[in-house]
Amino acid sequence: MERKEFMETLAREGFPEAVEVVKDSAGFAPEHTHPFEAKALILAGDMRILVGDMERVYQIGDIFHLQAGVVHAEHYGEHGVTYLVGRKAHASVS
Known about the structure:
Order of helices and strands: HEEEEEE
Shape: globular
Number of domains: 1
Largest sheet: 6 strands, antiparallel
């Protein structure tokens, strides 16, 4: 998906304005959760997201979507990753 189409999708789905995030090469974030729903478009590089025993690699043009409160870990590719992400706050997360 291209940036313009992604931004239009976020707006239709009620996400506030997206922000660009850059993560260092070969970095990682251990298991954690977010108090917001996240939908992101990979702009450069790649990353792996682990949810439970499921792992998926996301590359340029791919979109990842995580609901609020989902336990996950992130691993950034050899050249790092840059992504555009919309974050939608939710009133309560258990």
